[in-house]
Amino acid sequence: MNEETPSNFHVKRNLSWVDLAMVLGGIACIYVILAFGTYWLMERLPYERILLYLNAFVTQLLFVLLVWTVKSVRHWEWSDFGLNSMALKKALPKVLGLYALTWLINISYAIFLYQHGLTPPETDVYSKLLGQATWYTLILNLILAGVLAPVVEEVLFRGVIFGSLQAYFGKWTSAVLSAAIFSTLHFQAYGFFPRFMLGMFLVYLYDKYKSLYPAIGLHALNNIVATLLAASLM
Questions:
Q1: How far apart are CA 139 and CA 148, in angstroms?
Q2: Does pLDDT of 18 surpass 70?
Q3: Residues near 155 by Cβ (< 8 Å), separated by ≥ 6?
Q4: pLDDT per residue over 131-150, tens digit each?
Q5: Region 197-214 average pLDDT
Q6: How far apart are CA 180 and CA 9, in angstroms?
Q7: Do residues 151 and 163 touch, judged by C-beta distance below 8 A?
Q8: How far is 104 from 113, CA to CA, in rounded Å?
Q9: Which of 96, 194, 202, 224 is deepest in the core (most CB within 10 A)?
Q10: Torsion sign over Cα 70, 75, 77, 79
Q11: Using one digit for the tens of pLDDT, what is the confidence trace for 100-110?
């Protein structure tokens, strides 16, 4: 990975092993508790779609609280999370190039799955949220996938987890570990590989520009286009 350090970049602080383990445990608990709670409510209330949206938005809210806890307890600045200002037009060609590469990977992966008779399960949460889109569900999907998730998840997975792992492992090992964690915690087995590769590209952008903004841009672009395509096809 290249190292291009802007003049306003400073060496960020990292979490200790204990703190990092607590953050990862907190993320896992958020997913597990909300998942069980949501499915428990689905068995009792006839509002599956509403409950799925509630789960998605509450998940992002709890991620924000987790980040805010790290900031408050460890007295971090936002720059310690990777939110360093930069000229986004400098990173735009790289962001677009990596986005094109994600499309190539996704198409190749989809062809591979199709040739082996594998298709996404109809019970998949993402299919339920993106399917049968109306104007108001489309807006909710764009807010959730195109705004909240890119910002919150980049701060958490790249800024906190990848940034802290680098203090204990090499850059590439940290990149692989953080991308694997990012993909695994989406609990979507058939989409693990393309999401893992997206995670690697996001780490690359963060490391190259020493700022999360290019990674947020790629993450948002990927999610927004996927949401719009799903709305038009389903």
A1: 12
A2: yes
A3: 67, 81, 82, 83, 212
A4: 566 778 888 889 999 999 99
A5: 96
A6: 27
A7: no
A8: 14
A9: 202
A10: negative
A11: 999 999 999 98
d(CA 9, CA 13): 12
d(CA 86, CA 180): 27
Residue 84 falls in which region: left (phi positive, over 0), alpha (psi -120 to 50) or beta: beta
Domain ranges of the chain: 79-233
First vs last C-alpha separation in the chain = 39
**Count of beta carbons in the 10 Å neighbourhood of residue 49:** 12
Residues 6+ apart with CB under 8 A from 111: none
Would residue 77 be called left, alpha or beta, if left means φ above 0 and alpha means ψ between -120 and 50 degrees? beta
CA distance 155 to 215: 10
- Which pLDDT tens digit goes with each residue over 165-199? 988 888 899 999 999 999 988 777 778 899 999 99
For residue 64, the one-letter residue type is V
In whole numbers, what is the pLDDT of the chain averaged over residues?
A: 86
